Amino acid sequence: MSPSPPGPLSFAAVDLGASSGRVMVGTVGPGTLELREAHRFPNRPVRAAGTLYWDVLGLYRGVLDGLRAAGRAAPKGRLASVGIDSWAVDYGLLDASGALLGNPVHYRDGRTGGAAERAAAVMPPEELYAATGLQHQPFNTLHQLTAARGTPALSAARRLLLIPDLIAYWLTGEPGTELTNASTTQLVDPRTGDWARDVADAFGVDLSLFPPLRRPGDPAGELLDEVLEEIGLAGPVPVTAVGSHDTASAVAGVPADGGRAFAYIATGTWSLAGVELDAPVLTEESRRANFTNELGVDGTVRYLRNIMGLWLLQECLRAWEADGLRPDLGTLLREAAKAPALRSVVDAGDPGFLAPGRMPERVAEACRRTGQPVPRDPGETVRCVLDSLALAHRRAVADAQRLSGREVEVVHVVGGGVHNELLCQLTADACGLPVVAGPAEAAAFGNVLVQARAAGAVRGDLAALRSLLRAAQPLRHHEPMGDREAWRRAEAVICA
């Protein structure tokens, strides 16, 4: 471990989300943890010739602009390190010269339709789950590669880099595969933290496409001279592997009290709800409950369920804007708070909500199909969405406890959803547990703290990092209220 530095150090956290990217500057030292935004930029997918792509070069430009701003924001213009996290499963393909073979395809693209059926024909679902511990999602990297088999790009590829590893490669020239993100590919054995070679062989996936595995805290190269010149920084500036799956960084950034068993809900486009474990749960019951075992910082397992999350609300807002209604989110949330509670609920885990478009109509149709009242206006639609998310949080937290044998005393909500006080209170009501909300930028905090520990600016295990975060961040507390029997009745509607 590096010796403790004489004073606080500054770290740049590149945090790429499905709708926006940001570069944050964290200042860390003994008893010091501060985070501020240096630059934020949109992430706008592009549909071309029937395929939905990520604009990865636009994202990289945003990263460079953000690192330039981070250098200006850091004391004396010095960054001790850079760390990168993003969403999971998607990747870029490189040819033998290191050139990108086309824009990465978006996980919401329809090319993986029928993935479950194709996968089952190769390996029984229970066998695949026992080997990888990953819940079925049609967009898992394994299914994307199956869908891409025989395409010119995959045939010409000599490297496959997951999105944060691709950005790190462009910054440093050094390829690698960070483990927490690799664990979402459905090609990693969560017991060993190594590739599930039998699975790869069965599906015809060439694991030599992936560079060597890295773990959070490992060195990942230094910024290239050409990058330093473009962003106006003096070198050397190391890049440090962090929990490059943004949920891995977000869970590391949960300000949990080590004395209280906790569940977490990382909120944003998705809600990732579960518990932190020392070992995976690979039972058939776990598979049937659609729980996943993803790897986290310090050898932990993120045992969780994917829920559609605030995507449902985001898509409703986008649809209303397209109709010329110009909805104000604050006004809609106030109207939702006044709307009848649990009048209608939908299954927020339903893959039918995965694709973009017409979300208010799809929510209404789901209500109609289950014999419930259809929302009469945008306020009631928002209430339906938030009640449904809280209900999905309730089910995930309860199932995580039952399947893992880990009972919890408190639920930590982190990520963008902490700004939605109604959702946080409804989650407390639904779970029947106290909710601690914050920080909103948990992924950036987790990213920074892993870098800081690698640089020697802080010491200790995850509990020590979380203690520093807990002392530095204001948190909101929500106690459960209301009629718990009403939540049980609503759950029966979804489970019918």
TrEMBL record:
Question: Where are its TM segments located?
Answer: none
Q: Can you tell me which residues the record assigns to a coiled coil?
A: none
Q: Which InterPro entries match?
A: ATPase_NBD (IPR043129), FGGY_C (IPR018485), FGGY_N (IPR018484), Rhamnulokinase (IPR013449)
What keywords is this UniProt entry annotated with?
ATP-binding, Disulfide bond, Kinase, Nucleotide-binding, Rhamnose metabolism, Transferase
Q: Where is the Carbohydrate kinase FGGY N-terminal domain?
A: 13-252
One Pfam match = FGGY_C
SUPFAM superfamilies, alphabetized? Actin-like ATPase domain
Would the keyword Nucleotide-binding be found if you checked this record's keyword annotation? yes
**Where in the numbering of this chain does the Carbohydrate kinase FGGY C-terminal domain appear?**
263-455
Family, per entry = Belongs to the FGGY kinase family.
Instruction: Show the PANTHER family listed in the entry.
Output: L-RHAMNULOKINASE, SUGAR KINASE
**What is the name of the protein in this document?**
Rhamnulokinase family protein
Source organism of the structure: Streptomyces glaucosporus
